[in-house]
Amino acid sequence: MPARIDHLSASFEDRIADYQQRVDERLGQALPEAAKVPERLHDAMRYAVFNGGKRVRPLLVYATGECLGVAPGQLDSPAVAIELIHAFSLVHDDLPAMDDDDLRRGKPTVHIQFDEATAILAADALQPLAFSVLAGVAGASDSTRTALVRLVADAAGSVGMTGGQSIDLDAEGKMLSVAELEHMYSLKTGALIHAAIMSACLLCDDLDREHIKALDDFGRLVGVAFQIKDDILDVEGETHVIGKPSGSDEKLDKATYPSLFGLDASRERCDELLEQALARLDRFGDAAASLEWLARYIVARGQ
Prior knowledge:
By secondary structure, this protein is mainly alpha-helical. The chain has a single domain (about 10-295), classed as Farnesyl Diphosphate Synthase (Orthogonal Bundle). The chain has helices at about 10-30, 40-50, 55-70, 70-95, 110-115, 115-135, 140-155, 160-170, 180-190, 190-200, 210-235, 240, 250, 255-260, 265-280, 290-300, and strands spanning about 105, 105-110. Helix 4 (about 70-95) runs antiparallel to helix 6 (about 115-135) and helix 11 packs parallel to helix 16. The protein is globular, with a radius of gyration of 19 Å. The relative contact order is 0.13.
């Protein structure tokens, strides 16, 4: 396995601001300027992306790169592309036909700030832009670029995030088993988180199957834990802290871990998934310190 990038000494927490600034600069370069025709559409696209997100998915790309010794310059394109897909999904999730939310990250949602038609078009434009960015991954072979496009496309499509959202809508007011609920979570939230981690793997030379499998498992486990934590925050969090209306899941009668199994069981399952995920990182030793920090942050956020 490639050695961890040897110039890193401080904890990952100390590098987060630099990575966030890095991805924001590259997002700004990828997005059309708001003054470019059609101005309203481009303004809405930028509003959807630059609205205070923590950039957890890009951070997972960079943290995995640190673990595997992949330089940040190679990781910029997948980090940007995955964040664009995430932004596209949030715009659609907030629409009246979906969750009908007025706030996202403490600000008016795109369809409130602009209008519903502009929000739909902005999201529609963000998705293909992500694949345009992936086509230009620095220092990658054509086969690797193709693999990255397929990875993100699957994570975003009917066998990933979009399919998970469809299941979520169909499950409103229904009882689901643990297996059914976690399968839905693995698609609607976990697929893109998993893709963030695996994108760095695709850019790493000579990674053996055991290490790939470990990161694959880690990504899937963390993805489900992330959504369970979101469920918990929707019940316990305050609107000004979580950045969106609390209690929205209950209002829509959504099938969630707390609604189906209670808060205690939700916390226990979240902690269990975290421990399982961290165990997958054992084979990487100290090189996985950044990924371990991020996984713990995902489960602890809002506390």
